Amino acid sequence: MFEEEHLEPQESGEEESRLSDRDALKVDLYFWLQALVMALVGLILVFTFIGRIIGVDGSSMMPTLHDHDMLLLQSIGYTPESGDVVVLSKKSFREGQPIVKRVIAVGGQTVDIDYESNTVYVDGVVLDEPYILEPMRELPSNFATHVVVPEGSIFVMGDNRNNSTDGRSPELGVVDERCVLGRALFVLLPFQDIGPVESISRPA
């Protein structure tokens, strides 16, 4: 009798312990589910109000950006400005594949390129370009050296001027602003280079 009476509270204690473990598991699952929902909502807000994520393909923007960098773009409410690094897609150029370039001039401005002095002029003013990889070499004769940018368009070049098919080439030329997918704001990958695009300084 005494043994049976003594066993009953032990069984009750074990049952309470199992119930307590289940409750803790439920709390943990609820916490992680809540965290997942918050993360998904955050991603939706980023894509809705900021832009999109896109990868760099090629070396035309070195040393500012490298091949396979992942970028966060500002798309909503963005108007291209000189000096911005942008991602654009022009149907007549490489089947509309997105490319990354730097805005050199906007509508109504005039661009002149002097390869001998490694100088780019916009409306007669020399651009300060600490971001370019190396001095420019003269490219094929069909590459433009004088461009008047129409209103509603932009003229772009790569920071790796000697290895960039950009606005100087008849293949691309000036680009309608509506072809711009967004401004490159942040490098997301690789992790060691994460940060605002314009603040990143890396060797080629």
TrEMBL record:
GO terms for molecular function: serine-type endopeptidase activity; signal peptidase activity. It is found in: Cell membrane; Membrane. The chain crosses the membrane at residues 29-54. Its main location: membrane. It comes from the Bacteria. Keywords: Hydrolase, Membrane, Protease, Transmembrane, Transmembrane helix. The active site is at residues 60, 101. Its EC number is 3.4.21.89. It catalyses: Cleavage of hydrophobic, N-terminal signal or leader sequences from secreted and periplasmic proteins. Residues 32-188 form the Peptidase S26 domain. One of its GO terms (biological process) is signal peptide processing. PROSITE patterns: SPASE_I_1 (PS00501), SPASE_I_2 (PS00760), SPASE_I_3 (PS00761). Belongs to the peptidase S26 family. This is Signal peptidase I.
